[in-house]
Amino acid sequence: xxxxxxADPRGWCPGLVTTLKLCWYTVLASSxxxxxxxxxxxxxxxxxxxxxxxxxxxxxxxxxxxxTLFTCSVDATVKSxxxxxxxxxxTLSPHEESVRKLATNGTSVFAGDDKGExxxxxxxxxxxxxxxxxxxxxxxxxxxxxxxxxxDRGVTITQTKGETNKFTVTKSLDGRAPLCVVGGNLVxxxxxxxxxxxxxxxxxxxxxxxxxxxxxxxxxxLAGMSEDRLVSAGWDNTARVWDLHTLAPLTTTPCTLPGCPxxxxxxxxxxxxxxxxxxxLCKMKLV
Length: 287
Hints:
Elements: E1 2-7, H1 9-12, E2 19-23, E3 26-30, E4 37-42, E5 48-53, E6 59-65, E7 68-73, E8 78-82, E9 88-91, E10 99-104, E11 109-113, E12 117-121, E13 127-132, E14 139-143, E15 146-150, E16 155-160, E17 167-173, E18 180-182, E19 185-189, E20 195-200, E21 208-213, E22 219-226, E23 229-234, E24 238-243, E25 248-249, E26 255-256, E27 261-266, E28 271-276, E29 281-285
Antiparallel strand pairs: 1-29, 2-3, 3-4, 4-5, 6-7, 7-8, 8-9, 10-11, 11-12, 12-13, 14-15, 15-16, 16-17, 18-19, 19-20, 20-21, 22-23, 23-24, 24-25, 24-26, 27-28, 28-29
């Protein structure tokens, strides 16, 4: 995998970038250093297209569902925006603590916070229910009526019942944030953060399929490239691509990054975007 282009880290985003999301032919980025501002970049050449103020404090995560962009912040709020005009649609009912993560099962929006609470909203922003998962939500995934949450030790899989705090914990697994579901695989770093655990996500047994090893330092970011490809990056300032069918690396040489990445995003055309410490944003292509 080779790095093909990058945006000047000194020119657009001081500090670090925490979240990337792809929407059509644009890259959406957020940074606490910008105190709630969002940046929109062209997918092809990383030219800055637009910036707008989303929150008064740092934004932790972004999510696109249909024609709506959702943002969550240290200010304990979740907001919805028109993804075409970036005009505010609604400020959703506030949480009590900083909201770290957003996820969707395709119909609803799930927001996890530092109090250990996951709130569920409609696409229109109406509160449906909330679930107390005990610990801070550092990683979040939703599919059908299942919630996957993780902090720095242990993944919890919860079956929700559609009503506030009506749920059943169905499985606990080893692992830590970040958490990623790729095809039929549940992927998380193991406790030390140096290797990646791959679980079978197609049955309730969540059988351990194996581990991926190659990073020299703690893994900070994971993203799915396709149904059977994973990209990972970490404090060793490298990005690596894995075949989840064979559980082997796809390339012998990792791609060197400008700094430690906090976030990764992959596009359907095989490109991977990384951003992180120093405010850099770069685009990579598997070659």
